[in-house]
Structures are given as C-alpha cells and as structure tokens.
C-alpha cells in the first residue's frame, strides 16, 4: 500500500503526498492526491515552477487553469504537465479527485518513453503518448475509494512503463547537475559544467533535452522551491535576510524574481494563503 509522507488540508481541498515504491523511486519524486476537504470556500491552487513535470489523472474532469473569466478550457482527464517556468492558478469545476505522479528532473523518459523537451511548457494529453496506460490507470484508480488505493493503482501501471522504457533512462550527468543545482551551493553554470568535464553548452543541451529546462532556468526553479519553503515556514523573517540567505544580490532582485516566477509579490503570497493554496511538495535535495 502507498505510504503517506505529507498531508495538508486547506479550504475545500485536501492534499496528500505518498512515497514511491522501490521500483519507481529513481524515476518518481512522489505521488500526490487532491480530494475534498472540510472548508466552504472555493478551491484554488497556485502552481509555480519547481523543475519537475507531472503525470496527472483527473477523475472528475474539472481541473483547469483560472483566467480572468473563471475556468478556462478544461484539460484532458489524463495528461502530462510539462516542466514550465510559467506560474498559474488552477481551479476545479466540481469536487476534486485527482492523482498525480511527480517525475524527477531528467527521468521523464523512464516513464513516458519520450524526453522532457517534448512536453516542456505545455500540457499533453496522455492518450497521445501512452493510450493504453491512460485508459488502464483511469479505469483501475477510478474504481478505488481511498487516496492510498488510487495511488497504488496508478503506481502499478506506471511501474510497467518504467520496466518497458528502461533503455531511455536519463543521463547520470543530468541527474548530478540537478542535485548540485538543488543543493543551493552552485551559482556558476560554467564552473558546474567544467567540474563535470564538459562545456557549458553541452550541459545546456543535455539539460534541455532530458530535464526540459536549461541549467540556469532549472537553478531558478529549484531556488524558488527553497524560497517558498522558508517563506512559508518563517513568514515573519525579514525579506532582506531571506534574500541574502538564498544568494540574491539584494531585496529588489529577490522581489523581481519572486514575482516573475509566482506572478505575485512575497507579501501578496503570504496574504493569499487563506484563499489560494500552495500544495506542491518537492524534497529539498531531489536525492
């Protein structure tokens, strides 16, 4: 049975995170579910860049980004949310019942059989990539009652994909680069590439294909993960101190980067937590 490692309940939604099985832990960061909570307010989730891509199964068919006029065009019920640098606010047309698999950067081909670059910056209908997998996962998990059973059903189907696409595994170089960028100790891409025995241009090509982002963009996304973790944990921490701790030149630089990647200021982020949930979970080191 899937093992829960994180749970969060906000407004009308409940978010649970589950550790992957040993067979999938090299390819999958975690599985997650969104279901009905106990609140009465409308459910909205802010999604921001985190360097990962997700395979998402939406059993109510109501998951969609929110635009100026409410719900935009609904997404397919089973789709791949490619790695992206664009933030968005997502809502539900009905009671949410969603299962997702968050893939490790550089390991998309393990599960999907295609490199991350082919879905970067967009959502792709899973039936266009793995039609049998989409149908089986939706069927098996759709019959389950609990979040744990839904995750276990999806996990069984994806494990078959990993076994079948083993020859497409991401390169060790990309995985090493992501770990170093996630650590927060690397700020110079040229030096990182040199330490790996390759040119910065070659590393950029590898990252773009297998992780869907350039090293610089991956560094920005992974730094944002650390920013949000600290901001939510220590909301009273002075922003200038937070900016310095995370390697920003100054607070204005920090504010600009935060708004560019979240579409709100740090202050607006903290103020909206009562109405807009941030539910993404990603281990700090992606190890």
What features would you highlight for this structure?
287 residues; Jelly Rolls; 2 domains; 10 helices
Quick description:
The protein has 287 residues and is α+β, with helices and mostly antiparallel strands. The protein is built from ten helices and eleven strands.
Strand-helix topology:
Elements: E1 3-10, E2 13-19, E3 28-36, E4 44-47, E5 53-58, E6 63-67, E7 70-71, E8 78-81, E9 88-92, E10 98-103, H1 108-112, E11 123-125, H2 131-142, H3 147-164, H4 172-183, H5 189-195, H6 200-210, H7 215-233, H8 239-245, H9 251-262, H10 266-271
Antiparallel strand pairs: 1-2, 2-3, 3-10, 4-9, 5-8, 5-10, 6-7, 6-9, 8-11
Written account of the structure:
- The structure is a single chain.
- The protein is α+β, with helices and mostly antiparallel strands and 287 residues long.
- The protein has 2 domains: 3-168, Jelly Rolls (Sandwich), CATH 2.60.120.10; 172-264, Arc Repressor Mutant, subunit A.
- 38% of the residues lie in helices and 21% in strands.
- The protein has helices at 108-112, 131-142, 147-164, 172-183, 189-195, 200-210, 215-233, 239-245, 251-262, 266-271; strands at 3-10, 13-19, 28-36, 44-47, 53-58, 63-67, 70-71, 78-81, 88-92, 98-103, 123-125.
- A 7-stranded antiparallel beta sheet has the order 1-2-3-10-5-8-11. A 4-stranded antiparallel beta sheet has the order 4-9-6-7, with no helix packed on it.
- Helix 2 runs antiparallel to helix 3 (147-164) and helix 4 runs parallel beside helix 7 (215-233).
- The longest helix has 19 residues, at 215-233.
- It is globular and about 50 Å long.
- The protein starts with a strand and ends in a 16-residue tail after the last helix.
